[in-house]
Design goal:
The chain is mostly helical. Helices cover 71% and strands 0% of the residues.
Length: 321
Amino acid sequence: MFGEIVSITVEGITHNIWYLATGILMAAGIEAYLDRSRAMSSLSKSGWIGILLGTAVGALTPLCSCGTAAVILALIASGVPWPPVVSFLVSSPLMSPSDYMLTAGVLGSSMANAKLATAIALGLASGAAAFYFERKGLLVNTAAEPPAAIAGGSCCCTADCDDIPTSPSRCRGGDAPIDDPCSRAAYTPAARFLRALRTQAWFILKYFVLFSFLGAVTQVIVPESWVRGLFGRGGSYSVISASLLGIPLYMSCTASIPFTASLMRMGMSKGAALAFLTSGPGTHLGALAAVGLIAPRRVWWLYIGTIFLGSVVAGLLYGLP
């Protein structure tokens, strides 16, 4: 049994090695060279322009859930309106360039395009809802006091500051001098890329390998008839079941891809797969905790409602013949 699990795991990794490599290179390039401070400052625009920019920045930046929380906190502290903040918050955990590449390689371009369209649609819809609630006076731009781990910066930032901030940072709290290792200016472009490459390679590979293994375990141990019965029927039952399954699982966007591939090989329908790929990363435990700590309760419920209902609607539409 264990030999079969290892064989399935290795086959899944080697079959997608080029997509993994391309996704890692894309993520490293964006982390090293994208001026995040300029991208985030663009979110201060109000109305639909801010919502569009919030959705676009969220879908194009490779941030982990705690990195997203640090960005959201900075946006709130800067007085950015809630609509673009919520758009960024919803779209960010659902898609990034590297996740698009991995999804296309593992699950096919059709699923990757559906995921991208879902992330954009939910970002715009949540921003529009926040815009409506804000105009009705239901959202106040205040946040709960964050814990020091979030207030000081992203928890993705290790002792060596592998997260490479865009400007002299507050990685450990306080302003970093220009020659501090946490300062972007301390590195040449090539050095920034190499450090970002190391960070992104470790982040992507550890989750991809881990959940490839867990997917193989599921494929070997769980009877296919169970998966087909719960997620393979098509229609609303399988989609809602997949959305509910994704909520309690501690799974990032990268980790959900190989795990979903195993479920699809066992009979999960494509609509249920898209619902799972949306609700799983979107309700990632780290993201939920961060949103609960830094945002008003109404924003938290708007976030949860958008992810869950959006995953169901997207799954039903994608599953249509």
